[in-house]
Amino acid sequence: MESSTYVVIGAGLAGAATAWHLARSGHEVSVVERTTPAAADGSSHGSARIFRYGHDEPFWMDLVVRARAVYDELEAVSGTRLITPTGSLDFGARRQPALLARLMADAGVEHELLTAAQARQRWPQLAIDGEALWHPAAGVIDAEPTVEAMLEQARRHGARVLTHWPVEGVERLGGRAGFRLRGPGGQTLEAGHVVVAAGGFLPALLDRLPLPAGFRASLPALRVTQESAVHFPFAEPFAEPGAAWPTFIHDTNDLRIYCLPGGRDAGDRGQKIAEFGTGRPLGSAYDQDGVVDTANVARLVEYVRRHLPGLEPEPYASTTCLFTFTPTDDFLVDSADGITLVSPCSGHGAKFAPLVGQLAAHVATGGVPVDRFTAAAISRAG
Ligand SMILES: Cc1cc2nc3c(=O)[nH]c(=O)nc-3n(C[C@H](O)[C@H](O)[C@H](O)COP(=O)(O)OP(=O)(O)OC[C@H]3O[C@@H](n4cnc5c(N)ncnc54)[C@H](O)[C@@H]3O)c2cc1C
């Protein structure tokens, strides 16, 4: 039997971030991961996530500004560039570019509100047909090295990372504070406090955690979906090195599209495009089958044909991935009787992850949670 003051379950972006912040504050930390860090069947694998400031509430805008500061710190201590600047565009009526511009002005985020003609002149590869908001500080997060950088920092502060260690259940130890985690091959690990950062696997683990009944009852319903993302190759002349491909969010009346450079996952030959949050609902991550939704691909091909002259409307790669949603799209960062749950959910957690880890470490060590991210608050609003 081994023991550690804090055991973090899951080495995706959320678990790695929480472990980093706990360890740097001097706590004894073990991370236990089902497979390997940034698990290929989790949500934090690969090379491409959008980092952007465009949110329609000051709360989120402020959180991105704070998250960027923690990313900057992580880049500095790890000596690794984790966010490649690309800038980002927001357009489409439902995206409300003018509102986003006002919020960015309030938050001190550099931006330009462009007419459709100005935007098309600057990015002829995009057939933008309305007002567009440009903000140059956006970029692309390299997800897997971000996980590795945070785990490496955690290790430097004494944490250990156990891989291929699926937690089968957690028991509360009678008579004294603490927990026993059951792992593979009858192994066990004792902990004073458990942090659960299991991503889309969380719904399958919940009933095997000794959560206080009231807390368990207050948890929001988590919805896990299997999303599809499709890679389209650059059309000439937009494939030339240095061609400026921003990331973008396009909210049409029918579709919410996000687009970013495909990164090394697909050989850097094009852009990755996906519909936001239209994937197949799953009970938990264990139910995923990795089958790309062909109807979804067909919609994206049509989208590229109509809106993206800079790409060939012929996919050359595709993939599935998992989103975990709360009913309000808020994150879950809450704690009860020695167990902290952390999930930077809803398809936009990568950009906040280092900050969410900081918030989770704060909550796990007895700090007051952000009211909006408590289980009860999310359930009440949802
Ligand atoms: C394709 C895709 C595109 C995305 N795009 C963006 C984007 O553009 N911008 C953005 O900000 N966010 C984006 N996101 C969201 C972001 O990546 C996620 O919010 C984030 O990765 C969630 O991290 P996590 O640590 O909560 O979950 P995960 O990365 O899934 O980590 C959970 C870990 O827990 C482990 N685990 C589970 N159960 C157990 C157990 N019982 N024992 C031990 N270990 C366990 C798993 O193996 C896994 O490694 C995207 C996500 C995907 C999938």
Keywords summarizing the entry:
382 residues; 20 strands; D-Amino Acid Oxidase, Chain A, domain 2; alpha+beta; FAD/NAD(P)-binding domain; 10 helices; nine-stranded mixed beta sheet
General description of the model:
It is a single chain. By secondary structure, this protein is of the alpha+beta class. The protein folds into two domains: 2-44 and 144-219 and 328-381, FAD/NAD(P)-binding domain; 87-139 and 223-325, D-Amino Acid Oxidase, subunit A, domain 2 (D-Amino Acid Oxidase, Chain A, domain 2), CATH 3.30.9. The chain contains ten helices and 20 strands. The strands form three sheets. Strands 5, 6, 7, 13, 14, 15, 16, 17 and 18 form a nine-stranded mixed β-sheet that branches. A hairpin with a 2-residue loop joins β19 and β20. The longest helix has 21 residues, at 58-78. It starts with a strand and ends with a helix. Flavin-adenine dinucleotide is lined by residues 9-15, 32-35, 39, 42-44, 49-50, 166-167, 197-201, 205, 229, 321-322, 343-344, 347-351.
Describe the structure in brief.
By secondary structure, this protein is α+β, with helices and mostly antiparallel strands.
Largest sheet: 9 strands, mixed
Shape: globular
CATH class identity of the largest domain? Alpha Beta
Bound molecules: flavin-adenine dinucleotide
Mean pLDDT: 94
Unreliable segments of 5+ consecutive residues: none
Cα(first) to Cα(last) distance is 41 Å
> What is the name of the CATH architecture of the largest domain?
3-Layer(bba) Sandwich
What is the CATH third-level topology name of the largest domain? FAD/NAD(P)-binding domain
Number of DSSP helices?
10
Which radius of gyration do the C-alpha atoms yield? 21 Å
Number of strands: 20
